[in-house]
Specification:
This protein is of the alpha+beta class and 614 residues long. It has 15 helices and 22 strands. Keywords: Cell projection, Cilium, Cytoplasm, Cytoskeleton, Flagellum, Repeat. This is EF-hand domain-containing protein 1.
Amino acid sequence: MVSNPVHGLPFLPGTSFKDSTVLKFDAYFQEDVPMSAEEHYRIRQVNIYYYLEDDSMSVMEPVVENSGILQGKLIKRQRLTKNDRGDHYHWKDLNRGINITIYGKTFRIVDCDRFTQVFLESQGIELNPPEKMALDPYTELRKQPLRKYVTPSDFDQLKQFLTFDKQVLRFYAIWDDTDSMFGECRTYIIHYYLMDDTVEIREVHERNDGRDPFPLLMNRQRMPKILVENAKNFPQCVLEISDQEVLEWYTAKDFIVGKSLTILGRTFFIYDCDPFTRQYYKEKFGLSDLPRIDVSKKEPPPVKPELPPYNGYGLIEDSAQNCFVLIPKAPKKDVIKMLVNDNKVLRYLAALESPIPEDKDRRFVFSYFLASDMISIFEPPVRNSGIIGGKYLGRTKVVKPSSTADNPIYYGPTDFFIGAVIEVFGHRFVILDTDDYVLKYMESNAAQYSPEALLSIQNRVQRQEAPAPGLEKEKQQEIENVVTQLPDYPKLSEQGTAYAGSGSPFTGTKGRPWIMDQELSKQTKEDPGVQELEALIDTIQKQLKDHPCKDNIREAFQTYDKEASGYVDKEMFFKVCDSLNLPIDDSLIKELIRLCPHREDKINYHHLVRAFSS
């Protein structure tokens, strides 16, 4: 008696199959293919499962990879009807070599597995002999090798394939197209396959290069080197080139580091290769020296963007923001400067330089705002003058005429003093007078102003007060010598400037201006050498009372000081000293020269002039 393979117990009459016993049959069905010229029908192989526990059935088709057909479970597990009366299939209805119809499809059962055969025979069913599984004709046609109509050549390609299989020469090349419009220099990798003498060109992509990551520039193929004369007009774009149109193909000996070759109309320059390629060329062609060639190009210096010419509207910095960003922002302001100098205004009285007679009597009030470095101009109205007074210029920064749009230089508080010429948008103004707050500001910030500005203010004070009959010549010379030590000293000796007398708020000790006295005291406190220099000058001047110096020392030095900087070269300094007849001991002169300020191989001669001035 046959036993159940699940639990090993024999099949007994009258027992129920509740142990998931399944019968398996091999079958196939034919499917029409109406829209194909290569196949008219298709044979699909399936497995039919019969479940004894509830007399249900299912149809499964084995999945074939890349078949393009929806396979797997064709009919899910259920009881299937066999006729129009609604009778269901029973396991007694299944046998080999019969057709069954399920949902309009006819399945041909050709065989069953061993368990099913033993089970059916134990139940007294006579099984038909097994049949061969029908094969799909199109699938069998695809299994046959393709026929090649190629005439065999004398060259043994099989030997070349077996010898050089998986051996590839790798070259690094560049394509320089910078001569053409919008061209650039791009890098490529050229692969030469020794097994079949084919060439492949791959692109080298970098991050954010703006190009599609397409891997190949040229697919793997044989490349013709020289074509026959009649093949120049060969339609290569639609037909494949054969050996009849080519005289010579590219071979491994054509790819040499340091040489150029033209492929598909592009000239590639090979600048390097990998170690395997170097070893192959050394063994095959005897080329042992294949150095890498440096093809890197230095990037040109960045071009500095040029600002367009200033149109005269608004500030230069504010207008330039439109050239830097798409949405311009206001230039940053010095907040600390605005807080410190809030409500601090310097006012000046000015006249207009104009050839028109009516403009000579016009007066203007300049207001300089220290918080923002802006200037406003107001013209006091004059009755019956024919000119409407009022606001002449609103608050704005005024650019000096010598500055450029790239580096604008604005007028500052140090540019405003009595006698200064201020050019405002093509109009020239001369400063005539200041208010008392300007005098206090200049007194507290004397180091920022030039000597010319300080002297102009001193002359203004002199005119306000009753001037003295005059100072002695010695005091005038001493004051002038002190002024020469201030920074950026101009040639004041030619201006013939008079100084205020004693008792003026701008007058200090020894008849010097108060500002000059402050500068000297500041320098003496900071540098002890200044005090020693002043003592030496006093000693020399005491000896000169009996033997005055007859030579004009100042003119002798100014002849070589063409820039009027107060400094001359050391060689020229000693040359001038030797040419002068100085009635003083040589040791004092050497000590005086040692104490004179030096700057880049130059000596300040004003201390020497002060010492020997009578």
